[in-house]
Design goal:
4-stranded mixed beta sheet; single chain; 6 strands; two-stranded antiparallel ribbon; about 45% helix; about 20% strand; 4 helices
């Protein structure tokens, strides 16, 4: 991601880092991956009943979820990994419908 993209996402990234800091105090683990700071086993995400949430250049995974987990797409047209969705979220503002391309590639592999 370009420097301009990091600057553009910095307010949301700051919010994500703050949420992640609280999550680490509650037992989450942090790591770098997928061009973002990832928080695994974030108990706060479990309360909003989602598998993962992207805030700026941070990705928060619910307890029991991981970047390689396969999940159904929101429109039920295929299966995609949470990590691929997170990468798509980070690139969404600059590209076309990358999610469609990702899900097509996953369908072909399955």
């Amino acid at each position: 991601m370009s420097v301009l993209g990091k600057v553009w996402a910095s307010p949301n990234t700051a919010l994500g880092v703050a949420l992640g800091a609280i999550a680490v105090m509650l037992g989450a683990r942090a790591q770098f991956g997928r061009n973002a700071l990832e928080f695994l086993d974030n108990p706060l995400i479990g309360h909003v009943r989602r598998s993962a949430i992207t805030l700026g250049n941070t990705i928060h995974y619910a307890p029991g979820r991981a970047p390689d987990d396969r999940v159904r797409r929101y429109d039920r047209s295929g299966i995609v990994s949470l990590g691929d969705l997170a990468v798509k979220e980070n690139k969404d503002s600059r590209s076309g419908d990358t999610l469609e391309k990702i899900s097509e590639g996953v369908k072909e592999k399955v």
